[in-house]
Amino acid sequence: MAAQGRGSASAGRRAAVLALAILCVLLHGEFAESAVYAVGDRGGWSFNTGGWPGGKRFRAGDVLVFKYSPAAHNVVAVNAAGYRSCSAPRGAATYKSGNDRVTLARGTNYFICTFPGHCQSGMKIAVTAA
């Protein structure tokens, strides 16, 4: 009976290892499908990037990389009203590193620069992720 118990425990361990391996493959596959986009391409996050998302197909989980001089700009994630009015609501996520990575959520994601006059001069984008 002791041998039978060990075999059962060994089979249980094998099943657990197999389940863990399958989970790792599934998780890796999900992350492998995410794309990384440099906002503004070579020009980076700057004025007149509003048309940059045009023609691109974004998915939830894709990553936007905002490259800019932190002394001159920032990136603030806002809602639709904040995008339209060029104002950041209280508690809005603000990025200031100059090399920010933001993961897109499903739906429309809005970003503005809150340095005075920048958003009004076109430093804002709306990115819709399926």
TrEMBL record:
One of its GO terms (cellular component) is plasma membrane. Residues 1-32 form the signal peptide. The keyword Disulfide bond applies. Keywords: Copper, Disulfide bond, Metal-binding, Signal. It comes from the Eukaryota. Residues 35-130 form the Phytocyanin domain. GO terms for molecular function: electron transfer activity; metal ion binding. InterPro entries: BlueCu_1_BS, Phytocyanin-like, Phytocyanin_dom, Plantacyanin. This is Plantacyanin.
